[in-house]
Amino acid sequence: MKARRPNTRALIVSLLLDGKERSSREASRELGFGLDVANTTNLRAWQKGELFRSKNVIFNKIEVSHGRLGIRQNVGGYHLYTVPVTYSENESFVRNGVEYVAYSRDHLDHRAIRTKSKSSLPP
Questions:
Q1: What is the spatial distance between Cα 38 and Cα 53, in angstroms, rounded to a whole number?
Q2: Which CATH code for domain 8-120?
C-alpha cells in the first residue's frame, strides 16, 4: 500500500501555529514546495477560515541576479498569513503593526477582481 502524502493545507497551518507571520514565498521555501502550490493553498485556507491574511498588500524590493547582465530590482507585492491566537470568525486583529482579516470578498485584492472576462473587453 502506498504511503499517503500529507495534506499541504495542514502542513502550512501547522507551520504557522508558531505564531510567526509568513508570506507564501517564505512558506514554500520552508516546506519545500513550489510558490504556486503555497499561493493556492494559502488562498484556500484563508477562504475556509483557517488562516487570516494581511488586509493590505505589502510591497518589497526584490533583487534578481541575471548573471553577467547584473542584478535587476523588481517590486513585488505579497500578503502575510497567520493563525490567530484567539479565533473569532469575522474579526480582524493587529499584530506587529499589520492588520489581519478573515476572508471576505471586500478584502480580495482589487487587482485580481475582474467583472468581465478579458476576452469580452474591447481591444
A1: 14
A2: 1.10.10.10
